[in-house]
TrEMBL record:
Naturally occurring in which organism (per UniProt): Winogradskyella wandonensis
Membrane found in the keyword field: yes
Transmembrane segments: 7-24, 30-47, 56-75, 81-100
Taxonomic lineage of the native organism: Bacteria, Pseudomonadati, Bacteroidota, Flavobacteriia, Flavobacteriales
Keyword flag Transmembrane: yes
Keywords attached to this entry: Membrane, Transmembrane, Transmembrane helix
Name listed for the protein in its UniProt record: Uncharacterized protein
Length: 106
C-alpha cells in the first residue's frame, strides 16, 4: 500500500509537468486517471483494514471521480476550461492525498 503513494506521486508530478505543454498534459492526465482508478480498486481490496476517515475519503473520491467522468462525457462543448483542466487535476490531487493518508497509517 505504501508503494501506491509513490507511484501516484510520480504520475501526478509527470502530469503536472506536462501541463506546461497543454496538449501533452491532457493526454497524460488520462493515463493518470486510469492509474488512479486501478489504485482505487486495490484500495477497495484492503478496505476493511483502513481507518474510518480514510474509508469515507475513498468513498467520496469514487463518487467524485464518477461525477467528473459524467460531466466530461455529458458536456460535449469544450468552452469550459475549468471542467477539462481543473476538475480532473483537483480530483487527482485528492486521490494523492488519500494515498498519502494510507501511507502514514500503515
Amino acid at each position: 500500500m505504501k508503494k501506491l503513494f509513490k507511484i501516484n506521486l510520480v504520475l501526478f508530478s509527470i502530469t503536472a509537468g506536462l501541463y506546461l505543454t497543454v496538449y501533452l498534459g491532457m493526454l497524460f492526465s488520462m493515463v493518470l486517471g486510469a492509474a488512479q482508478i486501478l489504485m482505487s480498486l486495490v484500495i477497495l481490496y484492503y478496505f476493511k483494514t483502513l481507518s474510518k476517515t480514510t474509508k469515507i475519503l475513498i468513498a467520496f473520491y469514487l463518487i467524485l471521480a464518477a461525477s467528473v467522468l459524467s460531466l466530461v462525457y455529458l458536456n460535449s462543448v469544450f468552452d469550459n476550461i475549468l471542467l477539462y483542466f481543473g476538475l480532473p487535476m483537483l480530483t487527482a490531487l485528492f486521490h494523492l492525498y488519500i494515498t498519502y493518508r494510507i501511507k502514514i497509517e500503515k
